[in-house]
């Protein structure tokens, strides 16, 4: 590789400050250091968590940064000590690492890892150490990944090598949204055959949760969104009923209680609102109902009546669908290649990185499921 060992100048969409459009800039990407991999990003999805950081979380120490954490690409070069990756490998950068050594990685109970940006920077949502500069300034790597850039550098503990025939403009969705929702149903809620489920929020994360409920054998899957244009898609992934909370003048939990004779067995919150999280919990049946938080928010506390839990409901959270990232993602890619998992159906728009602000706008207005941006040419 002619570029190996050298600084690469390339195009990236830089978020200079919160709430402002991203700006296409030329950035410098340093060569990978020991245990690091420099990746040419071929395609990236836009996820609501990118919008969360830009418009909602707005943490002052999290800017300037390059957003994007749902990408796929090709290894350009590797740093010293990297033995399991080679230039040309197809890869997915991971916002949750898997070092394999820490007490979390060694436990089958969790997919958290003590290494990587996430260990205690959920508020800032960025890696403090970055390989990017622009106009003489350090630019942070959002969620340790930064896929809105033609090149990025990621530690090998946060890179999954995937099947060489995987189409990168589809499997990029396994870098976040689809893995997250699908795993939340299968791994975290542990949806059971014959059960009744409710999924709140029908973006890519919620639709993937619907797909997970269906693949787990749920009998009824009630899809809930305030945007009724999402129901057709939800049907494609297996939803059996649809409810718009705005169509009712009573709480959605009451509506679901009546529809299900006492509440659902499993509910998944895929919106990122503490009010919806409470509704999702209260929609569960007493005795054994399980409610899973998937939507991302860290700004407000939530409240619930203790009796909800005392009466036997369980409230859980799910990060990246509970998948151990390096192990899980290549398997999900293979499931897609074997047609056991849908991905194409999530993609409503194909655009280029230069159109990233249009893609962000489409998500803000609820007019897309996933926009996939082509980044660097393969
Ligand atoms: P999205 O914006 O595409 O979808 C959100 C959906 O929620 C929209 O269809 C919207 O109409 C609907 N909605 C809004 N308010 C609602 C309400 N009151 N009741 C019902 N539906 C409502 O977002 P996405 O990319 O699918 O992401 C969904 C959430 O998951 C976000 O909060 C995102 O940050 C989070 N997320 C979490 C993880 C994780 O690891 N836990 C990973 C990825 C994304
Ligand atoms: Zn995401």
From TrEMBL:
Cofactor: Zn(2+)
Domain of life: Eukaryota
Protein name: Alcohol dehydrogenase 1
GO CC annotations, alphabetized: cytosol
GO biological process entries: formaldehyde catabolic process
Alcohol dehydrogenase-like C-terminal domain sequence ranges: 204-326
Keywords: Metal-binding, NAD, Oxidoreductase, Zinc
Alcohol dehydrogenase-like N-terminal domain segment(s): 34-162
SUPFAM superfamilies to which the protein is assigned, alphabetical: GroES-like, NAD(P)-binding Rossmann-fold domains
UniProt GO MF annotations: S-(hydroxymethyl)glutathione dehydrogenase [NAD(P)+] activity; zinc ion binding
PANTHER family: ALCOHOL DEHYDROGENASE, ALCOHOL DEHYDROGENASE 8A-RELATED
InterPro entries in alphabetical order: ADH-like_C, ADH-like_N, ADH_Zn_CS, GroES-like_sf, NAD(P)-bd_dom_sf
Family: Belongs to the zinc-containing alcohol dehydrogenase family.
């Amino acid at each position: 590789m002619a570029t190996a060992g050298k600084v690469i100048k390339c195009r990236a969409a830089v978020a200079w400050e919160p709430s402002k459009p991203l700006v296409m800039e030329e950035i410098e990407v340093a060569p990978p250091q020991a245990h690091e991999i420099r990746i040419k990003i071929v395609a990236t999805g836009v996820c609501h968590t990118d919008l969360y950081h830009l418009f909602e979380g707005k943490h002052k120490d999290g800017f300037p940064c390059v957003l994007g954490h749902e990408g796929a690409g090709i290894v350009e070069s590797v740093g010293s000590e990297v033995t399991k990756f080679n230039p040309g490998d197809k890869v997915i950068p991971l916002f949750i690492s898997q070092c394999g050594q820490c007490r979390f990685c060694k436990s089958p109970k969790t997919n958290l890892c003590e290494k990587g940006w996430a260990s205690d920077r959920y508020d800032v949502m960025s890696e403090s150490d970055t390989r990017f500069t622009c106009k003489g300034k350090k630019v942070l790597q959002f969620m340790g990944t930064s896929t809105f850039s033609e090149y990025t550098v990621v530690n090998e503990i946060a890179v999954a090598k995937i099947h060489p025939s995987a189409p990168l403009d589809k499997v990029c969705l396994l870098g976040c949204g689809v893995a997250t929702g699908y795993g939340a149903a299968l791994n975290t809620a542990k949806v059971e055959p014959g059960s009744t489920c409710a999924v709140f929020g029908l973006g890519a994360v919620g639709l993937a949760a619907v797909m997970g409920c269906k693949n787990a054998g749920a009998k009824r899957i009630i899809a809930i969104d305030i945007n009724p244009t999402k129901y057709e898609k939800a049907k494609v992934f297996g939803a059996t009923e649809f409810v718009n909370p705005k169509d009712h003048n009573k709480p959605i939990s009451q509506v679901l209680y009546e529809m299900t004779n006492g509440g659902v067995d499993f509910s998944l919150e895929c919106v990122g609102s503490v009010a919806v999280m409470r509704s999702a919990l209260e929609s569960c049946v007493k005795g054994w109902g399980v409610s899973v938080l998937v939507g991302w928010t860290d700004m407000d506390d939530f409240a619930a009546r203790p009796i909800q839990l005392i009466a036997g409901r369980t409230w859980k959270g799910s990060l990246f669908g509970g998948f151990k990232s390096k192990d899980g993602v290549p398997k999900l890619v293979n499931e897609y290649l074997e047609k056991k998992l849908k991905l194409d159906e999530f993609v409503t728009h194909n655009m280029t990185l230069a159109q990233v602000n249009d893609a962000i706008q489409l998500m803000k207005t609820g007019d897309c499921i996933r926009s996939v941006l082509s980044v660097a040419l393969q």
